[in-house]
Prior knowledge:
By secondary structure, the protein is mainly alpha-helical. Helix content is 49%, strand content 2%. The protein has 16 helices and 4 strands. Helix 8 packs parallel to helix 10 and helix 12 crosses helix 13 (322-335).
Amino acid sequence: xxxxxxxxxxxxxxxxxxxxxxxxxxxxxxxxxxxxxxxxxxxxxxxxxxxxxxxxxxxxxxxxxxxxxxxxxxxxxxxxxxxxxxxxxxxxxxxxxxxxxxxxxxxxxxxxxxxxxxxxxxxxxxxxxxxxxxxxxxxxxxxxxxxxxxxxxxxxxxxxxxxxxxxxxxxxxxxxxxxxxxxxxxxxxxxxxxxxxxxxxxxxxxxxxxxxxxxxxxxxxxxxxxxxxxxxxxxxxxxxxxxxxxxxxxxxxxxxxxxxxxxxxxxxxxxxxxxxxxxxxxxxxxxxxxxxxxxxxxxxxxxxxxxxxxxxxxxxxxxxxxxxxxxxxxxxxxxxxxxxxxxxxxxxxxxxxxxxxxxxxxxxxxxxxxxxxxxxxxxxxxxxxxxxxxxxxxxxxxxxxxxxx
Length: 405
């Protein structure tokens, strides 16, 4: 399991204090003091490990639905950024300057990039964050959770999503001549090996690759040049894993998609592999798998997994909070489903109720035009109403005078 995508769930069951960082697994950062939930932040659980992550997913989901996020929510996220452009999982005192003890990370930064780019109007913050991400790229072309830590599939993938979202070509972002796609290729398990087609999170100490479904879902979307948001793509040329000495991004995606489709073929979901967890479905990673399968054009497998989520994931989302609702909304978007009717409940209403209320984009634009004076029609309409009212009052007074005389 990738703790990055399940931090809120860990918080819900009270084990965050002993968990790995809330973003991608990697060297564990020193935990911040337990913090209360600040104004503007979505959710009610301790944000120490996932504040920026869950806020970013929420804002992306809202924009995908056509909402303009509340100013307070966006301001909270921008206030978390360090002067060098990076983000930590959460800073309890954002007014204080970041220093060497501030545990910034690539996952929080890349997630914030996708959110701030989606909300618009934050080009300077986005550019600084992207520049920071480029500055901490590893020599193998990938990224680790913390700057300088070994590269892994999940961290590399969320950075690729940030680059793609801002219009940059991930293939052109290189360190020592290697791009993130070169890194993903090294973690793609050959077809003739156990777990063939899947991606590993990262090699073990002996360099061996072990199939990881969550890493595979992240790797598939990254190989397709996608971030958190994806639509159903073109169907792959083949359903099975295609052998390649050094797979291209398209082959990485298709091979990973074949692995994921087989993984959910029977039950429609992935199983939790978190150490010590009971034998149960992994709803968060299944939601990410829906997005990956849809993006790779494997519509039937994606819809089957989504149908399972629609039937079973409601209680998990209610317990877990905003990140879970956002994941399900993005899964619904990927397969063209209606998140307003998710097993009889509304993912949209449930998410928006956990923080500052957003507004639909059209209504927000209309309000903005009226408030900044750019909509003259509204002004003249008001003037017209006043004139009509004045004429009416004058007529009424004139009539009364005639009656009195």
